[in-house]
UniProtKB/TrEMBL annotation, chain A:
Compositionally biased spans, kind Low complexity: 281-290
UniProt KW Oxidoreductase keyword: no
CDD domains assigned to the protein according to its UniProt record, in alphabetical order: DD_C11orf49
Record's function text: Regulator of the tubulin polyglutamylase complex (TPGC) that controls cytoskeletal organization, nuclear shape, and cilium disassembly by balancing microtubule and actin assembly. Regulates the assembly and stability of the TPGC and thereby modulates polyglutamylation of the microtubule, which antagonizes MAP4 binding.
Biased composition (Basic residues): 299-309
PANTHER family the UniProt entry points to: CENTRIOLAR SATELLITE-ASSOCIATED TUBULIN POLYGLUTAMYLASE COMPLEX REGULATOR 1, UPF0705 PROTEIN C11ORF49
Organism annotation: Acipenser oxyrinchus oxyrinchus
Record field: compositional bias (Acidic residues): 314-327
Signal peptide boundaries: none
Lineage: Eukaryota, Metazoa, Chordata, Craniata, Vertebrata
Locations listed in the record: Cytoplasm, Cytoskeleton, Microtubule organizing center, Centrosome, Centriolar satellite
Keywords: Cytoplasm, Cytoskeleton, Microtubule, Phosphoprotein
Name this protein carries in UniProt: Centriolar satellite-associated tubulin polyglutamylase complex regulator 1
Domain of life: Eukaryota
Disordered as annotated region, ranges: 281-327
Automatic annotation (TrEMBL), chain B:
Name of the protein in question: Tubulin polyglutamylase complex subunit 1
Ranges of residues in domain Tubulin polyglutamylase complex subunit 1-like C-terminal: 87-278
A matching Pfam family: TPGS1_C
InterPro entries referenced in this protein's UniProt entry, alphabetically: DD_TPGS1, TPGS1, TPGS1_C
GO molecular function, one term: microtubule binding
Provenance organism: Acipenser oxyrinchus oxyrinchus
Amino acid sequence: MNSKRFTLPVDEYLALEHVPFYIEDALSQLLEHKEEYTQFGIVRFFADYFNSVRNGNHILFREFSFVKATPHNRSSFLRAFWRCFRQIGKNGDLLTVMEYRSLLQLLCPDFPVELVQKAARIVLMDDAMDCLMSFPDFLYAFQIQFYYEEFFENIAVIYQDLLSGKSPNTVIVPTSFSAEQVTRPATSNTAAQEGVDSPLFCGCIEALCERYKYSHPPLSSIKEILCQVQRVSFYGFLMAIAKHEGINCDIGSLPSKADLLIDPEMDRELEKLIAQISVSPTSNSSSSTVGHKEPVRKASPRKSLHYRRRIDIESDGSNEETDSSEN
Amino acid sequence: MANTLQSAAGDSRSTKPDTDSEFLTQVGAGAVLRGALLKLLEVRSEDPIGFLADHFGNLAQSLENGDSGSAVEGDKKQHQQALQSPEEQNQHAGALWHLTQAHYSQRSAFNNNVAVAFSLLSRGGRKRKPGLKGRAYTELLRRVCRDGAVAEPVSAPLIRKLRCQDHEAVPFDLFRRAVLTCFVFADFVRKSRSLFETVSPSDGSLCRAVLGSLRDALETTGCSDPARYLEASAKLTPGRLAQAMDRAQTLASGTPSTLMGQEEFIEEASALFVSRVKRVS
């Protein structure tokens, strides 16, 4: 936020960080849980509420409409998802769309499957949608799909128009979000392989960003991506955005790929657990499903992050490990 | 802003008309939020959510501690035993927090915060009479300078001019002026540092030329004549400054160059500032 905030009118200043939205939500929460919150006084309630907003915990177990309501909510949710489930990445597990959706629903009970599927399409380049995906690949694709959802809907419209040969001089500023209904006609599959002219595409995106009120990736990063190729496909473009470190930093929820799986606290907890299991004499009891799992995880090499068909052995491993990380 | 509260109450009104709005009125939600928003709008914090979290946190803390005074004070735990230093430390910390909430360029917000800080420091404890004593006042000024990244040797001359006797009672007006001076001084030192970093790669004569121009401009100002301020600022235009630096370089071209260290530069610059400050009598 720059120093212009001192001269903004009241409404605009408050809207910068969505203060009225959070106040309304705080009051709704207060009314929904009257007895619970009035026990400690409403000032303490407001203090706890705004502290949790600041720390990014406020989105946990809330309804999807709240989670997607502000950029801060979205980035907090992404960060929470990463922190809760990064152990999956450490194990090298590959999961399906529905499995990732189940994990998301642990944090947000009504999280829609469509959004997860859109993210999967980016990872899988709109192909073989029942393939498995690694945690990092899914997470970065999911991040941009969720954070820039509206922007990508508009980009899809622009892309379709360019594919179908509409005049590039038309400034496209879509005002409705019926882009959800945009179906890709069968003939465009070949066209989609060839893509559209990058400079042209870039120009249209620039025109969109100039009058755009939702979040979008920084134009400099978009230009960086598009100037590298002459032609670009839609999912190629999205995949490049997902992998772009600058855009990841701009969103600010997730660390870089190199640091994604670092989780020293959990590592210490697991090492303690392993130490306990290995000295325990009753290693055949049912309580050592954990013990059974540990050697498997240690023995299996870190899987490389390719997409493979499900194999029985792996499916067993991944189920158990998914279960344990849900604990 | 009134709309925010109205619409928020209005939303709940549409579901269960009487009970919800009655409940909110009963618990005083409107008043609490109004106070917080007014404060936020005055300060125009860069991080509104963080500001609200701190504001409500401090308020809740002071209510939980059973303070009878104004509920906007940022006190931490109050010790029940009248241990003077921990209590004073808490008051200092609270007062400093208030003073740093708004930049001094936001005049009315800054002045309000100074008033709150003053009343916080003036509160009597179990063994203290109410009123701000010189010792606490001087210590606070030192803290302001220290927190503003001004080294002790640099701020010492200023503190010497502003300090009061340990047991003297400090009136509010003096407190406000002194605190403002310290904040401005901290900014001045910061700017001198960056000025030095810009000029210093060259030799010391340029640094001295810059300081000379600054001294010249400052000496031009007089208390009562606004036109003198215009005259002073005219002496500091980029063109005039460049001329001064050029002159210095020509003069120094024959003699070996003497480098000027950062401490020396800051010392001279801050001396210019401190010389303009009236000593507290």
